[in-house]
FAD-dependent monooxygenase
Amino acid sequence: MDADVLVAGAGPTGLLLANELQLAGARVLVLERMPQRTGQSKALNLQPRTAEMLQLRGWLDAVLGRAMATLPAGHFAGLPLDYTVFDTPFPYQVGIPQARVEEFLEDRLTGHGVPVLRGHELLDLAQDDQGVTATVAGPDGRRTLRARYLVGADGGHSTVRKRLGAAFPGRDGRVSAVVADAVLEGEAGTEWRLPELEPDENGVCFLLPLGDGLYRLVLGGPAQQGAERTAPVTEEEIRAGLRLHHGDTVRLRELRWASRFTDASRQVERYRHGRVLLAGDAAHIHNPSGGQGLNLGMQDAFNLGWKLAADLAGWASPGLLDTYHDERHPVGAMVLENTRAQGVLGVPDPDVRVLRGVFAELLATPEANRRIAGMISGLDIRYPIAGEPEHPLLGGRLPRIELRSGRGLLLWSAGRADLAGAVAPWADRVDCAVGAATRDGADLSVLVRPDGYVCWVAEGAAGQPKDALHRWFGEPARA
Ligand SMILES: Cc1cc2nc3c(=O)[nH]c(=O)nc-3n(C[C@H](O)[C@H](O)[C@H](O)COP(=O)(O)OP(=O)(O)OC[C@H]3O[C@@H](n4cnc5c(N)ncnc54)[C@H](O)[C@@H]3O)c2cc1C
């Protein structure tokens, strides 16, 4: 075997997954088609749950060091969402270009000796009972690589997904727009702010400062709608868009890069195909509304990494790896739904403008804000984790903890010293600490998975975690 896991694609999903696997002791090899990093960024934000995830591993400070801004709000089709209502150390969006997140993750991998093979394109794959064989084209020609698992994190046009023949239901794009980074002159503004996505008959033209006169520009209107998907974006198209929306107050000096995107919306039917798994844009595509795609992909990676590592280490309970699909497919489906709804709120039509007004009023109420902000921020994700007894914390995230080792954690309340003994057989995969959470004044003992989600809760002196330990952490090393 050349590796335990081959990861196809060094985008944010593949790079985070490789980091998680490395942390858990797996041998990983990342294949990336592009010979060099382009430095280009589609996404510009980390949502609160992604920030929490990076904090769990102790990686957030380094990422924040590369950030440009924080925004205390999220948005739904440009309508503001208040994140400060949540119990989180990060009730804000981190404004950071995707390329800087990737740079941090790739540097960390190479610092730990994990090969990121650039200029290596995965062409084909075949799997059997023992592993996966990938055909790869690299600078020295074609070769095959073999691993126990392969993860397709190779983006929306995923070769892995196509070679699997995996069903990818949904619909094609209906709306086309342009994203570009350009140096602008004039009154383009210097503040980070939420996107203004209320279209008039000319569509939308949103500008966000990236520093040194560089701006992110999102342009959508009749000209973009009528353009062929593969037509190059010209300087003239950008100039015409700026003139239409800003008169001569904002002028183009230099176009750094530009591309077209659509609101195509599709999700792969199954995230797992034997020894091949799909994650990130390879598993789901949707319009960028709300700033969710990168975050969704990174959270896929975080869910998958420890489960795959457990399988490789030989202690995964039966079915653990399948919970990746069971838990992440519904979350992806929800994002597809909310982005389609946001797309409707961006249609340039007087009646839609009325609908936006109704939505804006609704989102100003605490209940609606909490519901939608919880979804967009990733903070309200509840995985279907059954427990005895049932508890409202089960399946949700536990904020303000650290899991730097990538192992699970049993947090026990002062009166439950017996739990230290209960967890001892799993000491190689579950850490143990006093200092439990409280809820409504009651002391809680909590078992947390390596991805920070609660898989067992007990209040007071009741309850033993044995079943949950078996379910999520397998057979103990010494019975
Ligand atoms: C205009 C626009 C704006 C966006 N804004 C936001 C935002 O603000 N917030 C947000 O969260 N999301 C946003 N997104 C979405 C976000 O950029 C994507 O969801 C994210 O890039 C997905 O990451 P990924 O790693 O899954 O895939 P990708 O970033 O596409 O990475 C896949 C990698 O795989 C490589 N690859 C492809 N094929 C092969 C192969 N055969 N072999 C080897 N390597 C291969 C590619 O070169 C690439 O490096 C935006 C998207 C667009 C289009």
Summary: The mean pLDDT is 94. The chain has 13 helices and 25 strands. The CA atoms of residues 66 and 100 lie 7 Å apart.
